[in-house]
Amino acid sequence: MSLNQGVVGVYSYADSVLDAVRKLKSNGYENLRVFSPVPLHEVEEEIDLPPSPIRFFTLFGGLLGAASGFAITVLTSAAWPISVSAKPIVSIPPYMVIVFELTILFGAIFTLAGLLINGFLRNRAPVSMYDKRFSDDKFGVMVVCPTENINSVQDILNSTGAEEVKVDSIDG
Amino acid sequence: MSQDTNLTYSRVTADVVRMLEKPSVKWWALFMISLSFVGIGLICFIYQVYVGLGVAGYRHPVFWGTYITDFVFWVGIAHSGTLISAILYLFRARFRMSIYRIAEGMTVFAVLTAGLFPIMHLGRPWNFYWLFPYPNQRELWINFKSPLVWDVFAVSTYLTVSSLFFLIGMIPDIAAIRDKVTEKPRKIIYSILSFGWKGSNWEWLHYGRAYLYFAALATPLVLSVHSVVSWDFAMGNVPGWHTTIFAPYFVAGAIFSGLGMVITLTIPIRKIFKLEDYITLDNYDGMAKLIMFTSGIVGYAYGVEFFMAWYSSSPFEWQQFMYRATGEYALFYWIMVICNVVIPIPLWFSAVRRNLKWLFIISIFINIGMWFERFNIIVISLSRDFDPAAWGVYKISWVEAGITAGSFAWFFMFFLIFLKTLPSISISEIKEILPVPKRGDK
Lengths: 172, 442
Known about the structure:
- Chain A is an alpha+beta fold.
- Chain A has helices at about 15-25, 40-45, 55-80, 90-120, 150-160, and strands at about 5-10, 30-35, 140-145, 165-170.
- Chain A has two domains: about 5-50 and about 125-170, Alpha-Beta Plaits; about 55-120, no CATH class.
- Chain B is an all-alpha fold.
- Chain B has 16 helices and no strands.
């Protein structure tokens, strides 16, 4: 097995990108990545990544927040029992406000953590494959393939309307 | 945004980057004016800390005055930002796209402003951290049954979540700016803020999900924050405060005032930066309709308050409301009613909703009216409660006026910095509602 190479094609049109992705997939290239200035939902469906695990982060954060809200209100009230306005020492209804706010706060912070871990830390696109125009008005299709397949990938990219094709060695 | 637009992807990026060019002399002039008013506010605050709270207009029985009014006012202003960015996102309202970044920035800066007022309202402001639960040697904890503690949790959660939402929402746009700027220091800062965003489908997938969850969390949060603020009053047994209508009444008022502020801010920005292709009359039409709706709710609440006071057969409630409309503060009461209920009536006509001059004027009156609404609720209720021997009239002091002016300047200062450093129009969301470039187009 030879080293993996990255090939990226630069496109101007979203439908060309979709064609390229379909053609690459039908030729057996599964390690694809599409760069775009806007989310392309058709391409997303075509590449069909597993659903984002961020939902579990949000759920866990929310539950942890609710538990923390209950814990801090109930435990601190019990730690120094003092009667306020002749109300029960532990009175749940007013504590629900704290529980609610902490649910939201922890949910949001864990969503952020989920985004940082999944979107930005794991599976980063290699810098050498990025082109500044991808954040402006161009699209990119990147393929990771063994060295011997580079020519066939380049052919597919060119035949689907790539304006430019770059090849670079990447790790992994 | 209208459908038949001459915008293209590259033009959107270029236009937003153009807004971030070196500030003009006018910008510096506005910034310096803001900064000097911030200075005046700061001097007033230092004077108050040095001399004591007596220099604020607090006189028996009114010990919640202008600072609490300002606090509620600014928290209210913050609300429409999250409404536009989160609630309208969940409802897929397209008219939000061009204005939501400005509204979100407004939210963050308004909460930053609001958060200062409870601290200024303290006799010993350096002890403000006592409001937070932290382990201490005496094992003393805060009283979680107090609405003021709920407020601390609500407002600090709101500040955190809305700032996160604001910064997360900007990541793809900052990446676009990062790829355009050439100066080294700017490039470094934008690179850090963009978290190395490359716009690959992997990133978009997680980003889209995270954004959706943020919106879903922010939506109940925004409704809770002003409800909690209203409970600062409604939980107290003061005639004019102790009513169950307060939470929805405050939330509607908050959205009403916030939309007023969005219109006040975006009309000049649109003109100065020539954003007519982005912020269209349809956008203003949408916002004006929301103002009509919330103005209706606020007007209804004013009526219901009177009805409930009469229907309750409580002489204390009834005297309070008669006092509001006819007593020493009657002028403020009627300013509020006219600004919030009468002046927005022309918005029922689409010609007014689409006329920016009229819209701007109406929005200014809404800002004024909503400030007085908070003042009326807080101050008038405290001026006359149960015991006629304890009645009194409150007058705003110059220290309070100085700090209030300073707070507006503080807000505008942040806003001016925002306009020149961060993308105030969402690049990626505007591109998203433009038609995707396809081969057949050219």
